[in-house]
Design goal:
Layout: H1 2-15, E1 20-23, E2 30-37, E3 40-56, E4 59-74, H2 80-91, E5 103-111, E6 118-127, E7 130-141, E8 144-152, E9 174-185
Antiparallel strand pairs: 1-3, 2-3, 2-9, 3-4, 4-5, 5-6, 6-7, 7-8, 8-9
Length: about 190
Amino acid sequence: MKRVSFLLAILLFGFTAIAQEISADVSKSEIKWTGKKVSGEHWGYIDLKSGSFVIEDGKITSGTFTIDMTTIVCEDLESPEWNQKLVGHLKSDDFFSVDKFKTATLKIKESSEFKNGVAEVKGDLTIKGITNPISFKAKKESGNYLATITVDRTKYDVKYGSGKFFDNLGDNMIDDDFTLDVKLVTK
């Protein structure tokens, strides 16, 4: 009887998928933000504070990523004065209220199976303490994971310059969507 139980345990274990937790190398990973407006765009970077996810049966089954909102920088404005003004404005209550909300979080709930290195990922994004579902495509490439995540800022109470909420903005209107181009380098 003990042999049968032992053999059954080996067979069940042999057919059970092993989950693999993958950690992000935050010093090498990169998040580029891009915000567009009628008269152009601005872009910069923001640091990943921590992150890991679990892969099982070729799918991402869970994960948590924390973004350090205090690290937001702008790379397209060369004038130190204008650069500082924009970054200060992005950190203000008009945008991300960084003094109150120092981090944003992405919690991955599931993904499709990676096919040709690409999977559809679903999760919850929290910005300014407000959580909304989000989905995006993740691409596995040379041990890294790449994604472009489009975020509707108005869903997170970031309404400044939005044509949905303000009339007659003209050239001062800012697109409601911004993008995060993520390069996740794993350990």
